[in-house]
Amino acid sequence: MVRTLGLTQLTMIGIGAIIGAGIFSLAAAVARDVAGPAVLISFLVAGAASLCAAFAYAEFAGMVPKAGSSYTYCAAVLGEVVGWIVGWDLLLEYTAIVAVVAIGMSGYLGFLLDAVGIHLPTWALGAPGTGSGHRIDLLAVAICLGVAWLLTRGTRTSARVETVLTIVKIAIVLVVIVVGFTKVDSGNLHPFAPFGLGGAFTGAATVFFAVFGYDALSTAAEESVEARSKLPKAMMLSLAVSMVLYVLVCVVLTGMQHYSELNPSSGISSAFQSVGLSGLANVIAVGAVIGIVTVTFSFMMGAARLWYALSRDGLMPAWFGAIHPKRKVPHRATWLIGIVSAVLAGLLPINAVAELTNIGVLLAFVVVSASVLVLRYRKPHLTRSFRCPGMPVVPVLGIVFSIWLMSFLQWQTWARLGCWLVVGLVLYATYGYRRTRQVMPGGSVDLDALEHISDTDDIDDIDDTGAHGDSGGDTAPATAR
User: Fold this and answer.
1) pTM to 2 decimals?
2) Are 24 and 267 in contact (CB under 8 A)?
3) Is the pLDDT of residue 36 over 70?
């Protein structure tokens, strides 16, 4: 891979991952169905839980300039099996997040097409069960495949597109806030918590995936210039900016239109239309489409880099992690993730996919928070460009917050996660355990060795044929991870 991403581009990728379906689609759906105007509390609770985990991620990012993110962190501290479980878990979750935000974008894209007189056939308007005659969400499928194509063009090109689109998205969100506040009716904010605080907390568990984009950001470590110093800063900046925007938009959304009348597919545009601002509603719909593209970009990029790391370490076949010889991106993994996310987006309703993403990421947060706590006492000598504050309280709060939010998710979501993890353990026992010892003798991550890896030089561990290193054989030094 080639290191081309600076602080501005990293921050934009983080904001691009965080600001998207959470504001433009999920906020309205959660407000209407489970929280009311207290959706504001939902985002604040989710943001507080996310911040605790963000500190842990930032400390690891300041030590380990590698593409594996949570997988590498957890494997280094708690062992290969735990690392594999987290990596396998997040591979599904990142792919599912791409599907969720594509579904959210399709609602706004449909809103725009209707505005210009283009009407898709009923069968193409949504997944089965989301409406009469619905068979597939065709727009969501097209979005997933289009973003996969963009990502295979190369990191520098796609990151430039991401930066420009994120700036446009922030500008439109600011317009929503400024103009929307002039149309807020305080009467719409009463009752503030019609479903009780329990509804707000349930909403927090649902919207959580909208406030953790820095996790996907950390997978870009091997394409970042001076990753140890810039990644922690980008994580904190992107989360801070995004939370301020989330809070303000929640007030505008539920203040402009009564929560019971919100449109879960195109919430903000429909709210502006309801107060006579149809022209601006169309502009916002354009912003929503742009905004959600950036989220899809960030998480699909994260999933592909995670798959690359798992393949490089022998836990999955090296074929999947092959780097394109010219564009220097994991093109096979990117296309496979694009296809799988397209299938999920086309055939599943948004709530089912959103809960599946949340439980997996919350599980990863529990393990990462525990890992940073263990590592601080096990290896205090390691150089840390960022140190998680409030030790040991903050990591413990991250663990407690995450488990608490997981308790609000439906049992079916737990069952799906359990089935996926069982499949992962079978794959590890039958393939990964043996193969990783051929590729990585010892099968362990040496943090002391990782500390000396340069975060300014380019890294090229897998060539297009899937061979590791320059030897072309099946073995590589244990410190390569």
Assistant:
1) 0.76
2) yes
3) yes
